[in-house]
Amino acid sequence: MGKSFPRLHVFLGAGGVGKTTLSASFAISMAQKGKNVGLISIDPAKRLQTALGTTSITEEGTIIPLENSKGQLRASVLHIGDSLMRWVEEKGLSQEKKDDLLKNPYFSALSNKMATAIDTLAAIRVAEWLEQYPETEELVIDTAPGIHAIDFIAKPEKVSLFLDSKIIDWVKWFVGSAHEKQSFVARAFKSGAKKIIDGLALVGGRNFIVNFGEFLILLDEVFITALERIKIAQKWLNTPSTQIFIVTAIREDAIFTAKEIQRILVNLGIKPKYAIINKTFPEHLKIDANLLQFIQDNSFIDEKEKLFTNYLKSYLDTQTKISKELSFAKISIIEIPIASGLDGEQELRFSDLSSLGDIIQQKTGNI
Length: 367
Prior knowledge:
The protein has 17 helices and eight strands.
């Protein structure tokens, strides 16, 4: 993996604020400037594929062709089931054990049904990226929309504690040594753990313990590697070079989510460096307040123009309010102006996306 981490860039924010488009734009911009860039989306809605205008982005990683690019962009859409199967394959389990694992209800639930686990387990995938593509210089993470996406940063430690807990050891011991002759000390220790195991059984029944224990035993080596990767991800997330972007739009609900994400991060001891306000009204097109009032006060001006002016004034007032509220929190503000080329029905162009990414690079000093 090398002596130092590549730079990590994490995009967080409410749904519909353009977070995926901006993270893709940022990645494209860096790649076109000559960087070897990775882009991982842990958004289950797979918006990244739409943002990049393709349907063929794999979980393992797909090179995105860019015209006149000096660097390289490799993108991935996270799917926990595919990740788990690859992690199992890399441990070289026998076919019999793989068959047992596929039949286990907990493996099935984790790989196919636990969509909420994506944010929690994403840190493992991020660390694995460095093993697969050690040449990566910049890694951009597009998280799922909303406050719960913070789990990508907050939950790795909890997952680590769970996988490394005594309860896990006891469950594996109970299931794996059921037919082995136990020593007196082992039986005594086992009886002490029995109270906890019985508590779990009351919740899910004895089959719960057996199935869960078998699941843990089959994935024992996978969990060991997962723990190592989680520790790497934790260290990486806390390096000074890591950039966390909170993305918002000119909407009250979006600013509420942005402020809540910021509050949670601060409570975790992490200070986000940048807030991106997307689709702002360009400074040079803003209408003077006196002109707005003149339009409202004169009857000869068409009512439709007045309605539009009212909408524009409301939009600008909200934009100013958002900027002030985020600035008050001592976070650098990046304003991304409305880009008509990205809002139409026509096919997205990488040049349009790259231009947005260039703005972010310039504001963060990456260029």
